Amino acid sequence: MERIFNFSAGPAVLPLEVLQTAKNEIINWHGCGISVMEMSHRGKEFTSIIQETETDLRELVNIPGNYKILFLTGGATSQFSMVPMNLLRGKKSADYINTGIWSKKAIKEAQKYCEVNIAASSEDSDFTYAPTQDQWTLNKNSAYVHYTPNETIGGVEFNWIPNMEYSNGNIPLVADMSSNILSRQLDITKYGLIYAGAQKNIGVAGLTIVIVREDLLGKTILNTPSVFNYKIHADNFSMYNTPPTYTIYIAGLIFKWLKKKGGLAEIEKINSMKAALLYNLIDATEFYICPVKKSDRSRMNVSFRLKNVNLDKKFLEQAKNRGLVQLKGHRAVGGMRASLYNAMPIEGVRSLIAFMKEFANNHA
Ligand SMILES: *Cc1c(COP(=O)(O)O)cnc(C)c1O
């Protein structure tokens, strides 16, 4: 059977090896006679799956013992409200960095619970860069600082980690890493909390991973529903209610695949190489344009346009005929977007580049 190259921003491409393992194990997992989908989440088989998944993630990211890993549902979108509910800790305001559509959504939800101080924004330039920290106006009384290290729609990535020393470690840094988690090495100790939906770089839709420093837990705002309380999930090892068992299993297979590839240091090199190949082509022609500032270009979501927008439709059609799909940009920004997550093989990028060169030559 033929596989094509899927550049979707999410749900996104999965490694073929992982799909094959899942296929082989779908009816009878490790000889136990049933599928992972049919297992009790409290039984010994699934307990071993979730524990191994957590151990592998801890190893991949080098997560110290004072950080809890939570396997939740609700998508990254649920975290837009869970973060303020759990992390305001009696304070009245929080700092947010506004760098795109996902930041804006996080801000809108947080405004229901607290005063949001927009410490920096790139909206004035259509979200085409990541404001450097010297441009931020941080509030010393804020409960936390929230930012989006990779804006999936605009294709803007922070290639540096904000420095929180000004707060003497009292203000935690919070990050929505939905679209770049596990794409590069990560020093988790710089963060109080990170969260990510699984359908981009972790696995399949339905799972949301939260990694949180444990001293931040247990101070929710009044009337926080139990299911939105991080501490309750942490105390119950993500079994307060039924976790998304099958998607946790797939995430576990992905973590093993990543370990086999050499971990985050290795995948980071490959990801940088893949992105550089594509940006180099875009910059080498007048035919394609990338609106994002060079230093802040996303390695995961390459946003670009055709100079002649009348060719957009033809570009997408011909790409599809070559087995290169889901290249259309988000409806909010138009143009094209090629998502190059961990599971996108370098052959996919080379194939896209070959097509783009040919298309440009044929329409010059
Ligand atoms: C995809 C995405 C989301 C939304 O995720 P859902 O799972 O649909 O809630 C939020 N933030 C970022 C950065 C994303 O890429």
Question: Can you describe this structure?
Answer:
With 364 residues, the chain is of the alpha/beta class. It folds into 2 domains: 16-260, 3-Layer(aba) Sandwich (Aspartate Aminotransferase, domain 2); 263-362, Aspartate Aminotransferase, domain 1, CATH 3.90.1150.10. It has helices at residues 16-25, 44-61, 75-87, 101-110, 230-235, 245-261, 263-284, 312-321, 346-362; strands spanning 5-6, 67-72, 93-98, 115-121, 145-147, 150-151, 156-157, 173-176, 193-197, 208-213, 288-289, 301-306, 324-325, 336-339. It has a 7-stranded mixed sheet with strand order 2-10-9-8-5-3-4. The longest helix is centred in the last third of the chain and has 22 residues, at 263-284. Bound molecules: pyridoxal-5'-phosphate.
Q: What is the CATH superfamily label of the largest domain?
A: Type I PLP-dependent aspartate aminotransferase-like (Major domain)
Q: In total, how many domains does the architecture comprise?
A: 2
Counting helices, strands and paired strands, the structural category is alpha/beta
What's the count of strands?
14
Strand content: 15-25%
Mean pLDDT: 97
What is the spatial order of strands in the main beta sheet? Answer: 2-10-9-8-5-3-4
Task: Give the end-to-end Cα distance, rounded to a whole number of Å.
Answer: 36 Å
Bound molecules: pyridoxal-5'-phosphate
What is Rg?
A: 21 Å
The topology string of helices and strands comes to EHHEHEHEEEEEEEHHHEEHEEH
User: In the CATH classification, which architecture of the largest domain applies?
Assistant: 3-Layer(aba) Sandwich
CATH topology of the largest domain: Aspartate Aminotransferase, domain 2
Percent of residues in helical segments? 25-40%
The stretches of 5 or more residues where confidence is low (pLDDT under 50) are none
Specify the CATH class of the largest domain.
Alpha Beta
